[in-house]
Amino acid sequence: MKKLMLCLVALAALFATPVLRAQTAAPAATTTAPVPAGHGQGDIAGTWQGTLETDHHLRAVMKISNDNGRLTAVVYSIDQGGQPINATGVALQGTAFKFTAPSINGTYEGKLSADGKFITGSLTQNSQPIPLNFVRATPETAWEIPVPPAPLKPMAADADPSFEVATIKPSDPNVPGNWFSVKGRNFTTHNISLAGLIESAYGVHAKQIVNGPDWFDKDTYDLNAVPDGEGQPSNKQWNTMMQKLLADRFKLTFHHEQRELPVFVLTVGKDGAKNMAENTSGGLLPSLFFQGTKGGIMLPARNATMKDFTGLLQEVVLDRPVVDQTGLKGRYDFTLKWAPDDSQFGGHVPPASDDPSAPPSLFTALQEQLGLKLVPAKGPVPVLVIDHVEKPSPN
């Protein structure tokens, strides 16, 4: 049974701490006067900037565009590297302005001043509202947005890499948690069983692996590895390296069969997907890390495909395989909050909350927050039948 864990690959989103606070140049009070003629969605387009006065002074630049009445916005935390944070649900109704930033689990609500020069409002992260006021920037006053560090050059698509160096050690039971992580070209795991390694390498659910030995899902390992060749491997290439390591160090052999199993099917609801900002960073890997939230669990996803998301659901959260039938092909930033039940996370879930503000169940949360639908079904599923496996060879 799996413990609640940080999973899949890559790093946490940029804003791991509360962000965006008051802009000192903005007025202290919000005007509630009607917007004069000539002000509206077109007038809010442009560059805005404000400073976050938390434990750190963090400057933010917001660029708003208007495409035939459709507003879009990108926010840059210029003191944290300047990576773009794509907004969804950008809207101006009268003087009320709002947007959602899924990758930082943030929502912003503010008021546009009558002269169109200030937006006074607050950003809410993890149920905590933080004052954030913007002032319209001019070419003379605009802050420079730093160029983010260049990502590692991708590994050649036709490369067939192996781990050049790989150490496998039994996990220290005194170090809590369990995870997979990729930082640059360094791949690490903590407290992961052989079952977990196979699930990740082959993209299967635990129920799709049969005939394992009794230590298969009990003994856990820490893995540290670096690939050969040059460049940043893709997800597929990381999985290929894991598969080679399992064969070399664990002497894993198996064959495939098709078996009828209960599954969940993920589809797009009748009103379409929502609150999912397309990620255009060009990154090869997703960030999918669980966090605790009031009355439940929160998953801020960044640069994630639906295959990444369903893989996480079946490997970590749910008790059966998950089949992606959404048809969504891009990479997305979104945040999902729900209250897990005992069938999820192998039964290792927080106590149920009676707080009326607690998030809904996973099934309801997917529909209400993302416009997705998760339904139970039954169908033929590929199964890995283990023929031989050993405990890992010495380093």
Give an overview of the whole structure.
The chain is mostly beta strands. It folds into three domains: 149 residues, Quinohemoprotein amine dehydrogenase alpha subunit, domain 2 (Lipocalin); 101 residues, no CATH class; 121 residues, no CATH class. It has a nine-stranded antiparallel sheet with strand order 4-3-2-1-9-8-7-6-5. Strands 16, 17, 18, 19 and 21 form a five-stranded antiparallel sheet that branches. Strand 7 and strand 8 form a beta hairpin. Helix 2 packs across helix 3. The longest helix is centred in the middle third of the chain and has 15 residues. The radius of gyration is 23 Å and the shape is globular.
SSE layout and pairings?
Blueprint: H1 41-44, E1 46-53, E2 57-67, E3 70-77, E4 84-86, E5 88-93, E6 96-101, E7 106-112, E8 118-125, E9 128-136, E10 163-170, E11 179-183, E12 186-193, H2 194-202, E13 209-210, E14 220-227, H3 235-249, E15 253-268, E16 277-278, E17 287-288, E18 291-293, E19 296-304, H4 306-317, E20 322-324, E21 332-338, H5 362-370, E22 372-388
Parallel strand pairs: 13-22, 15-20
Antiparallel strand pairs: 1-2, 1-9, 2-3, 3-4, 5-6, 6-7, 7-8, 8-9, 10-14, 11-12, 12-14, 15-22, 16-21, 17-19, 18-19, 19-21
Helix pairs in contact: 2-3
